[in-house]
Design brief:
Blueprint lengths: L1 E10 L3 E11 L4 E6 L5 H9 L6 E6 L2 E2 L8 H5 L2 E4 L11 H12 L3 H14 L15 H13 L5 E5 L7 H16 L3 E6 L2 H5 L4 E6 L2 E3 L1
Parallel strand pairs: 3-8, 3-9, 6-7, 7-8
Antiparallel strand pairs: 1-2, 1-4, 4-5, 9-10
Helix pairs in contact: 3-4, 3-5, 4-5
Bound molecules: adenosine-5'-triphosphate.
């Protein structure tokens, strides 16, 4: 479960990107995060991932308070989280395979099991057979799929996606959302941010709407 209790995030310079937010996301829930540019969507996702720390309040992920946790312990929490952020951070000096393999190497996965997982993740996102390519030869949409494979290869229980459908045409965006839906169907908790509320509306899921760091109706 993800719980925010009166969370405020103030960036250096004094700007409050998130203001006294409280909410819960249950295990296995799919929640959309909507809001204008600068509303605080990325900040909220970074707080869940422990990339940013709250200035006030508590962020609990699986009952662990990230605000109080020592930095050295954060990697253990992150093992349960998959991240898809806007700046892809693809390594263009490595193959598609090696990009997806990286999180498993960091965790210290065995060679055989790791290999199996990488191929399974690439298959899941529709990139089978492209493992030996350099990511530079993938289309924008395929690079997005590569990022999704890399985010799920360690089978996280929570998947956070920041504007995964930005810059995609509507059909392609629907494909990507279908992919996320398939993770949801196997019990993964998903938080997906997007500008386009029409896309979200089709799914009939809870929408958290942010405006200047606070929820609106
Ligand atoms: N590291 C930072 N230092 C200072 N201010 C920041 C930092 N990161 C974000 N902000 C500010 O916090 C506010 C919220 O930013 P955030 O990226 O969370 O919004 P967003 O809803 O994800 O916007 P977008 O859709 O444009 O990505 C913005 O005004 C932004 O300028």
């Amino acid at each position: 479960m993800i719980q925010f209790q009166q969370v405020t995030k103030r960036y250096p310079g004094g700007f409050d990107a998130i203001k006294q937010l409280s909410f819960e996301i249950q295990d296995g829930e799919l929640v959309f995060l909507a809001g204008h540019s600068g509303a605080g969507k990325s900040t909220l996702l970074k707080l869940i991932a422990g990339i940013e720390r709250p200035t006030a309040g508590s962020v609990l992920v699986n009952n662990q308070n990230l605000a109080r946790m020592r930095r050295a312990s954060l990697p253990y929490v992150r093992r349960h989280i998959g991240l898809i952020f806007q700046d892809h951070k693809i390594l263009f000096d490595r193959s598609v395979y090696d990009n997806v393999r990286l999180p498993l190497d960091i965790i210290g996965f065995g060679h055989q099991e790791g290999h199996r997982r990488v191929l399974a993740a690439l298959d899941k996102v529709g990139l089978s057979g492209k493992d030996k390519l350099n990511p530079v030869s993938l289309s924008g949409g395929e690079q997005q799929r590569l990022c999704i494979a890399r985010a799920v290869v360690h089978r996280p229980s929570i998947l956070l996606a920041d504007e995964p459908t930005a810059n995609l045409d509507r059909d392609y965006a629907q494909d990507i959302l279908q992919l996320f839906k398939s993770f949801h169907q196997v019990g993964v908790t998903l938080v997906i941010s997007a500008h386009d509320e029409n896309l979200m509306a089709d799914y009939g899921r809870r929408i958290l709407r942010l405006k200047h760091g606070q929820f609106t109706a």
